[in-house]
Inverse folding.
């Protein structure tokens, strides 16, 4: 098997049995493992009897670690990069070192393995293959609405925390009236759950059920141009100076849409 200078190694997102044989072999064979949280990674290494030296590498020390790793690689050492869970560079550190290593002509490869997005999407039937992954959603309502409006014609995949997801779903419900969502939590673990329904129904479900673990979500694309055309008409009437109440009455009469839904969309 060909040897590389630097290995990007996915680690299980929950179930330790999901690690690959090659990942274990690489982690045992390299000289250094660069990891986000040494305490988290050490639990994984102990489970598989891996004795390799660990060095912390996270978003707060990425740049200062680059020179150290390059010096080690220049001496012929081999390095593996892992995150706490899943695949590095997917909302996890790694981009800085990989970019610098390629600039300095070191060989870099990535192993196949666990990834929350792929694990989630393989359980959710969609109308098309295309999707946009936006990572962790921004914190403000306006920023989330901008993303929802920008990608109406494709599926939007995102990460979120259990503390924020209900607020996020409320924003989605009001910004994309009638849209369906899929929410996955505790993927690959014993309490794994994927809920797919209209946004308001998913909100009601999670209000009555404990929310734990990292969240992967999907906002389904608009199934027709109806809502897109309605948005355009709302904007046109707003530009003419009509108020939300007036717009909701006009469009509900013309297109048979729910007056309250239109009013919420206006405000």
């Amino acid at each position: 098997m060909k040897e590389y200078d630097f290995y990007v190694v996915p680690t299980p997102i929950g179930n330790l049995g999901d690690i690959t044989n090659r990942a274990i072999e690489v982690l045992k064979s390299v000289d250094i493992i660069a990891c986000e949280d040494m305490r988290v990674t050490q639990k994984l290494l102990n489970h598989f009897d891996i004795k390799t030296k660990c060095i912390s590498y996270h978003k707060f020390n990425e740049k200062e670690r680059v020179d150290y790793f390059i010096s080690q690689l220049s001496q012929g050492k081999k390095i593996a990069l892992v995150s706490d869970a899943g695949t590095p560079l997917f909302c996890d550190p790694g981009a800085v070192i990989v970019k610098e290593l390629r600039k300095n002509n070191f060989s870099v490869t990535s192993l196949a393995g666990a990834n929350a997005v792929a694990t989630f999407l393989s359980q959710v039937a969609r109308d098309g293959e295309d999707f946009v992954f936006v990572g962790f959603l921004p914190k403000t309502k306006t920023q989330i609405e901008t993303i929802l409006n920008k990608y109406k014609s494709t599926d939007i995949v995102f990460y979120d925390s259990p503390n924020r997801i209900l607020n996020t779903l409320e924003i989605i419900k009001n910004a994309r009236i009638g849209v369906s969502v899929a929410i996955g939590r505790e993927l690959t673990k014993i309490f794994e759950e994927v809920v797919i329904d209209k946004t308001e129904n998913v909100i009601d479900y999670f209000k009555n059920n404990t929310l734990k673990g990292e969240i992967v979500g999907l906002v389904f694309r608009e199934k027709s141009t109806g809502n897109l055309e309605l948005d355009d008409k709302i904007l046109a009437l707003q530009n003419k100076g009509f108020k939300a109440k007036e717009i909701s009455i006009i469009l509900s009469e013309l297109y048979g849409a729910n007056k309250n839904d239109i009013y919420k969309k206006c405000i």
About this structure: The domain at 6-114 is CATH 3.40.1010.10 (Cobalt-precorrin-4 Transmethylase; domain 1).
